[in-house]
Amino acid sequence: MHEEYLEAFLAESMENVERLEAFCLTLEREGSKPDLLDEMFRAAHTLKGMSATMGFSKLAALTHRVEDLLGTLRDERVRLEPRHVDALLLAVDRMRARIQAIGVSAKEPDEPDDDVMAALAGALRGGADVGGTREEDSKPFANLSDWANRAAAEGKELYTVHIRLAPDCVMPGVRLAMAYQALKASAILMAAHPAEENVMAGQVEATEAFAAVMVAPGEIDRVRQGVLDVTDVSSCEVSKVSESHSAPKEDAPRAEQGDAPIEPRVSRHANGSSPAGADLRRDATLRVPVRKVDALMNTLSDLVITKTRLATLVSSADDPALKEAVERLDRLTGDIQDGLMRLRMVPVETIFHRYPRMMRDLEHRLQREFDFVMTGLDTEMDRVVLEEMGEVIVHLLRNAVDHGLEPPEARESQGKPRRGIVRLAAYTASGHVYLEVSDDGRGIDRGRVLETAVAKGWITPEEGAAMSDESVYALLFRPGFSTAERVSDISGRGVGLDAVREKVEALGGQIRLNSVLGAGTTFTIELPLTLAILSALLVSVRGQVFAIPTANVDEVRRVTRDDVRHVQERPVFQDSAGIVPIVDLAERLGLGSRRDSYPQTAVVCRDGKRRLALVVDHVLDELEIVNKPLGRYLQGVREFAGATILGDGRVSLILDVRSIANPA
Amino acid sequence: MDSYVVMRVGSERYGAHVSQVRSVERVGDITPVPRTLNFIKGVMHLRGAIVPVIDLAERVGLAHASADEEDRRIVVADVEEMLVGMLVDAVEDVVQIAPESVEPPPSVVGGLEAVYLRGVARLGDDLLVLLNLERVFSAVETEQLKQVEKLVHG
């Protein structure tokens, strides 16, 4: 095997599979078009050629069959029907799994593709094989939820197991057989893929396997250790299957796309017709641990400080050439800084591209009808934050389809368009990234939310009646809240909105929701641009310098004694836009007592719709600063969002205006 | 043989295992962080990173003895991927100590509860108290959180 070719093959073939998948969705949405089918045919053809060249004959054969079907459709020998797309998508899934497996072991897995081949042939013939074959495809694990229930009934637990062998393993078949035996030693093997009998018969050369096992509570670690003790087993991941729902992402053949027990060797991009191929290859060859970028970032900020010092020294000198050199240094440092930040940033498309397919499947499974619209795909955000958000968005999207949108008939009877809309939008504004999931469904029934909260004893009916909508919606994010009357397999995964909120807040963001009964719901996630350079106002308070992000600052103003009123004994002032509470920063931070002399300098800050006037001693400067985390050690200190290093080497704390405005 | 950095705090000598010591710095600007525990002196800047600084003397309940400003140092420890600076009166030496000559700590040594200690070793006529930095810092972390909680809930 030519290693260097393999890498390129993986990237390019995966790119073509992604293209095919995106085209399939377009095909389904917009119907048959000669141009589109041409494109699809070409993608399949390229894939076939590459696979054959590399000696992956099964993949080539599979692609050949896809090409057949596409050719037939293109030449309009048959009319496009939904089952054609189903069969194509089935094939796409299989190709992706194959390519991923090749990425792991540099070899083509041995299991036959008869099921998918039959589905494609069936679609071509116009037979009804598709539905049946689809079942077939996920057969080994189709009963997960049943088994989980059975396990629970017997006082046991059901786990899915993902076993991987070392890629250079010499006798994978034998090792897998041993791993299965290890599983059976202390667990009941419900199903396995590849099938147990094939493995035991020595007919399998795969380097990975999935299994579902039933074990006594607390035994799973022992089971896992038993498997890991088998020579050449490189990993064994177990994941508990909860009862009462079938979890499609735990289907064995698809596990590769779900929680990603397998780290994809090739990152997947939505492609459409965008020329993202170059990006894809770059991603495949440039995998840098975030901490390395962080280390470089630290060195860089040191450089920036040194540069600033140099600039200060030079400013008093009278040497034009020297000054010019320093200015040039200034620009170059800025460029490096930008470039480094961009290294950590990726467009949201890298995660979003997998949603259209998921939504398409949801639409079918839940019998909803809707258009899924994504905007702001090129919005960039920190890679790690984006990855963390992936699951959160999945949850919100499922929620929107399952609980937000009404069934088509219900919509029509209410005079709404039969087809709903689910939107996923990304955009940046004032130092934050926003992710928005919205639907035009039934909206949130305030009354029902309150009923639940009262039933849970959280509030009294009287309190409920007096609550603002905002506070009512906030109840939805409390642990233990669920208005879903039934637990469905789509959203009822025991993961509630409280878990969503927790995740968002752990990343320093926050989540809000807005809803109009009968008209729809919008979830808005606001996240900080981590590592961002932000513009900040430097203020001094009792000799200490603090930074206030200018994104939060409305204005700096003087407050005279005459301006100050008192509301419930708290000082406020009034301007044309309303009443603004005055907070003495020295007092708030425990640095000294409230200032009594006037006039005072106040920085009027904004947190959402609320305003707050922070009294400071002096406003010193406005400049670009690098936001650095305070670290685990001081994470409990809510008043500060981070720290930055000033030009003179001193550290200045960055105020978290939100926390200061909302002392918990 | 294990190497320990010998730090003087008041009249006591504490040892930190060299594998956990990232560097020893002169005391520069330390920015106080309001609303934190007293022995947290603040944060400093170390080659681009923000590092919290604790006062080891205050942490263990000792006064800085002679506290010659010139001698004071910040020992930057790297524990569980977390950098923390310890302000000490002086850094005296790096010594070799055989593991077998380390004795279990008596229940209370130099103001620190035994759980914070790896043990005690003889160093000439003196005792060297070997710190368990994981414990010292994680306990600080917990206390810090408690402190914050107290502020929050009154």
UniProtKB/TrEMBL annotation, chain B:
SMART domains per UniProt: CheW (SM00260)
Entry's Gene Ontology cellular component terms: cytosol
A Gene Ontology biological process term: signal transduction
CheW-like domain sequence ranges: 1-142
InterPro entries per record: CheW, CheW-like_dom_sf, CheW-lke_dom
Domain of life: Bacteria
Pfam families with a match to the protein in the record: CheW
The name this protein goes by in its record: CheW protein
Organism in which the protein naturally occurs: Alicyclobacillus acidocaldarius subsp. acidocaldarius (strain ATCC 27009 / DSM 446 / BCRC 14685 / JCM 5260 / KCTC 1825 / NBRC 15652 / NCIMB 11725 / NRRL B-14509 / 104-IA)
